[in-house]
Amino acid sequence: MLSNLILIREILLKLYKKYDIYFNVAFKFFFALIVFTQINSSFGYAAVLKKSPVVILLSIIAVLIPQIWFVLLVGIFSIINIFFLSTEMAIITGILMLVIFLMYVRMTPSRGYLLIAIPLLFKLNFIVAVPIALALFSSPASVLVVVVGTLMYYFGLEIPNIALYKSTELSDLPNVLIDMYKYLVSNFLGNKQMILSILVFIAIAVIVYIIRSLRIDYNHYIAIAAGTITNLVFYIIGNLILKAGISVPRVLFASLIGGIIAMVIQFMRFYVDYHRTESVQFEDDDYYYYVKAVPKIKVTAPNKKVSKINTRSFRSNQQEDN
User: Fold this and answer.
1) Domain of 212?
2) Are 132 and 264 in contact (CB under 8 A)?
């Protein structure tokens, strides 16, 4: 069973390396298509942006532009949608997105797709895999993208409530914006579920990073299990303390799904044979070196040889025998 999984992994990796350009183009297009469709589903206030040709055209544009400009395009698309609901809300959203773009996205453009994907992963209940995977293959500081994405997700949930503040005249606009700001401070920043989620994700990233840095066998898989358990335990304890009203079965389901996804990502990234681990020691003029070498597991598909029978020569031999 395991050898078959490893064989499938090798085949998939070879296919991706051979056709990576086509896979990347397809990923960018369908990812953008899903993102714009979801935005229209959540904030579909602009009828023109909900038309299929517009969504497809924007998805094609997303294929041709870098990640950082894709994030900007998604932000503008969202702001235009919200503008048809509330001018004041569009201004607030524009300011927040500008701050996120200048202070984070511009500094880490390579994580643009992940930042946009986090609100979608929240909806699908797959978000737990993100802090685990980031801590496995990066530093704990990389969890900042999860924090920013979490803020974006919960801000999106509050948009219909904040948009209730509307100005009847232009002179009322400053007062309405101040009221919106007060609402954000009191309700949005005081959202217990959001605060608990951010704290749990930071805890997951720190614990996973510490365990995967240990020089022990199967450290990555132990770290994934620890991250999954951390999510479950911290959410339950935090829910009891803060009374955040989080569903425990939902947390359990999210923990299991997140752990499985992280396992798959780890398996696809690399898989090693700890049973054949070797410790190597050597030296030069200045240092002694102690190296632990763990070989990767690779399985190649068996070559099947098919012998072709020449029916003409076979018949002539039969005639000679007769």
Assistant:
1) 2-293
2) no
